[in-house]
Amino acid sequence: MSVHPWKAPRWLRLLPCVALVTSACQPGTSSDESAEAEGAGTALATLENCTGVSEWNASTIYPPGSRVVYKANLYEALVSIWSADPVLGTASGWYKLIGPCTTSGGDTLPPSQVTGLKATSTTSTQISLAWNTATDNVGVTGYLVFRNGTQVGTATSTSYTDSGLSPSTQYSYTVKARDNAGNLSTVSSTLSATTAPGTTEPPLPNGSWHPSYLALGTVYEPFTGTDKFFSKVNPLFPAGKRLDYGYLYLNGGSQISEWHDRAVRLANKSKEQGMTPIYVVYGIGGNTDSPAAVWNNLQSAAFLTTYFQGLRDVGQTATGIIGTGRIGYVIEPDTLGYIQQQYGPQYGNDPAQMPAATYAVYDSGVLQRGVDPTFPNTLTGLVQSINYTLRKYTPKAFLGWQLNLWAAPGAPSTGIVHATEVYGLEAGKTRIQENARANAGFALKAGVKYGNAEFISIDKYGLDGAGAAGANPNDPASSLWFWNADLWNNYLLFVRTLKETLSLPVVLWQVPAGHINGTLQSSPTAYNASGTFPLLSNAVQQYEESAAPYFFGDRITLSGNRLAWFSKNLWGDPKVSVSGSTVTWGSHIPEAANAGVVAILMGAGVGVSTRGIPQPGSYPEDQPTEGYYWISRVQDYYRAPVILP
């Protein structure tokens, strides 16, 4: 059996992080954000003489030992490196920061003391600060903000929003000014500010792993761009509300060596933002779009030894940071899909008959023979051992395996969601249900529910509909992934069938974040001064997509083929209506909840995807690429979230 031609490759997301900035690479905080004691001296670190050292250039290849200047700091290359700037490169282990620059006889005068520090607004989880502009003989380049004596952030303007705070809690703030030479002013006077009381949420069901309303989350590659983004958008959330989840990829291949740092970064930053971290364990199927490579990884004791040791470290590391909070795992996207699609027939579609080197979990020292359960050397045994390992080393874990729309036979060449277009509405619905049951049945035999797994996950595909292979935004009917409401309703039918077959709630994951041009939804002027959202260009990182309009609802002005396509309503959906050239879709989050969805995790899945929040490789680094549409709709939703049935 061949891979369906409509299943577009994921290679753009899965490129190794080798000295290039990609969406799968894990950026880090800049040297500006290193913790610094409030009472430190007049410089961030020992000033370095950078005379004669060239400025960093993106097109230059720097061999190990080369030194460059970037943003008034001196860096040294640890590997042969190009393209990635030294701030991102330091976080990935490609550069090391030597220190801030000065030159002999250079500027040694610090800026003036910051005055006028005040709190401009408070909520239950954040405090917004402002202060007067400091002066300097050369020029002030930024400010360091301290909470309770520890640096918590930097600002290039005279304001800062501190997030991730506890309700009804008093905090002390000070600020220092910094100039281009790295000189710091004396510390400002101390400001005391208290957060507002928190709102009382209904009790959390099902072991407190998800709230009582349908939760939302985002892909989250923490770096300086996301810090600035959340500082801007957090004040516009309703009081006491934040995104529920932030997810981050743990890719396979050579990137397993990065898992520890990524675990640290996501746990710390999610905690700071008041989100629950979710790790997308993409080790077996990650960094490959090859079923044969996935199969070989299942048989490789050497690979699985490294893999299980990585899972142990991630669990222990994240737990050490999060403490008693919950930690989520979406397990191995595509892996079961590839195995079912390519190897199922020759093994009678029975994962218990498929070989796997499960013994590696014992040989690696991660589990102990005679102490931990004995798992067989089969695909089922491997799946069960992964669930068990995550539970053992992450005591507050919630987890679920990811399934695929394309894994089971019986779909038309355009994909199972298009079945109603090929076979008619009712016959197509039947095909969709049969296909979902086949997916769920294989997963059940593979052991995905072992150890009381909390959920099952299904994606859409992380590249926006107007950007997927063969897409034509002006003729969306010919675009396999630019769905109208009928196709989205087909998708929810597939989801509902998974939920009913497996008796597990569903987490939608990697749902794209673009929108449809022609939206009549108004924009907060804090995001777009015009009060409207900009048109998407349907070029790299600015593609149209219908997921957010479908789930959140929208009114869209359209014409021609676009009007005809997005007006379609074979389902007789009462939330779809047309008046002249305006198509109205009501919010379908209630329908998602009734289908068994408890959370929708949205975000770019490949490097060219539209970004609902900043990710490395887009510019400006602190802005989404779709004009803040997605985060605005999220904030609207949180004003009256949908309670789960």
Automatic annotation (TrEMBL):
It comes from the Bacteria. PROSITE patterns: FN3 (PS50853), PROKAR_LIPOPROTEIN (PS51257). InterPro entries: FN3_dom, FN3_sf, Ig-like_fold. Residues 110-198 form the Fibronectin type-III domain. This is Fibronectin type-III domain-containing protein. It comes from Cystobacter fuscus.
